[in-house]
Amino acid sequence: MSKLEIRSPLPGTFYRKPAPDAAEFMADGATVAVGDVIGLIEVMKTFHEIRAEVAGAVVVFIAEDSEPIMAGQVIAEVEA
Amino acid sequence: MTIRSILIANRGEIAVRIIRAAKALGIRTVQVYSAADRDMLAVKMADASVEIGPPSAAKSYLNIAAVMKAAVDAGVDAVHPGYGFLSENAAFAQAVVDAGLIFIGPSADAIRLLGDKVEARKVAKTAGVPTVPGSDGRIEDLDAARAVVAGIGFPVMIKAAAGGGGRGIRIAETMEDFERHFPQASAEALAAFGDGGLYVEKVITRARHVEVQVLGDGVDAVHCFERECSLQRRRQKVWEEAPAFRLPDAVRANLCASAVALAREVKYRGAGTVEYLYDEASGEFYFIEVNTRIQVEHPVTEMVTGIDLVQEMIRIAGGARLSVRQDEIKVQGHAIECRINAEDPARGFLPAPGTIEALTIPEGEGIRFDTMLYAGYQVPPFYDSLLGKLIVWGETRESCIVRLSRALQTLEIKGLATTIPLHQALAADPAVASGDVHTRFLEPWLDTAFQTAVPPKEVA
Description:
The complex is a heterodimer of chains A (80) and B (460).
Chain A: E1 3-7, E2 12-15, E3 37-43, E4 46-51, E5 57-61, E6 67-69, E7 74-79
Antiparallel strand pairs in A: 1-7, 2-3, 2-6, 3-4, 5-7
Chain B: E1 5-8, H1 12-24, E2 28-34, H2 41-45, E3 48-53, H3 64-74, E4 78-80, H4 90-98, E5 102-103, H5 108-115, H6 117-126, H7 142-152, E6 156-164, E7 167-172, H8 175-193, E8 198-202, E9 207-217, E10 221-233, E11 236-242, H9 249-265, E12 269-279, E13 284-291, H10 298-305, H11 309-317, E14 334-341, E15 343-344, E16 350-351, E17 354-355, E18 358-360, E19 367-371, E20 378-379, E21 386-394, H12 397-410, E22 412-414, H13 420-427, H14 430-434, H15 442-447, H16 449-453
Parallel strand pairs in B: 1-2, 1-4, 2-3, 4-5
Antiparallel strand pairs in B: 6-7, 6-8, 9-10, 9-12, 10-11, 11-14, 12-13, 14-21, 15-16, 17-20, 18-22, 19-21
């Protein structure tokens, strides 16, 4: 088993949910496929979907919901 | 009461603009800022500054309690809200007054009344201002709606009574479309705004967006003529002018008089803008809404009238009567404003926060650059992408565009992508030069003429 990282392509604010009262795009511990939406980044009042570029089991989110994030910062780790 | 100190409840270029106006009036300034904005220019320029919260605007610039605490602790006399954020928030305006301070803008009641699109339409009608043919206020059910649209004809726009900024709008071309969209629009409006109320308006095709700047002191009101804001992308203005082009004098006179009538009807106090759609084919104009604040594009009006609108707002809030009479307000020449955003127009307007490595600002007669940039400044990703506004004046529209092109060649913002290439292409475009534009001109133009002028970059 190796550990893969999903990093933010953009600086901004990271969201795990499509709306404050909606369910998370992906729960901790879920299995992720390439292309799955795992969160949103808000940059200058526009929202960009973040899609996984790796597949694997047991995704663990490192970035906090609704918190600032830098470009290149790790959003989640995935066991592949 | 004379204002001696102001809290600036905003950020970016408008905060800088307000500080300059306050300094010119000999007023002390206190600037609020979020944790992401410690290095912003307005913080450096203000006499004092107060951190009010984390980067998220909801926890800082939109946090009424945090802004009010800063205002009370700083002991200011007044609060200027700028544009955006809390500028049209009636609860904020009321909180400022309840704390014994002056809100630099209209009363909370006026903000509430004019902010409700259905109520604003009623006030406009009462003042004799033409409104877009449509429903008399909210329509609650589909049967009533069918009767209304049958009377006005298609296409029609279904709008959320509580909507704004282009949100909650659907267009129906036929009755069948309409019957399908109406219940969905109501459900969406309820989910988005907590209010499922809808109203219906006729769609004016090939309309131009013309708006009138008004100033009121609560007793009297005047207009400072109009602006043309037809070049828009996703309902956001990108290029604004004063005066509006190809507007017959009689239309201009009626348009401006109707805006003053509306301002007088509500005893308006402060600077405000009455927005209209102008149908060039029929020569008719229709009321859309009132913005109860200073607007991004106010400098084009300042350039052609010589009136400092921000200083005037502050004086009025301090209890002064209007300093100018209507017959003293004249338009001289032509002005154009280009909004320079941190976005890459060659890559679908992708936002481009980053560090300003170098900055060259054009100078000279008839050139003004309103900005918060300086070399070394890091543009944060958390807010609006507006970096600055290039405003250029000329004796005629033609000479203004020539001067604008030269100024855009000189303007250099290194370190991030900007919309400067978009404005260079617009300034060189024959349709823009002839004034043959409307509110739906820009988006198809971006897909065609702009692609030829500025081909997309290869993305690695």
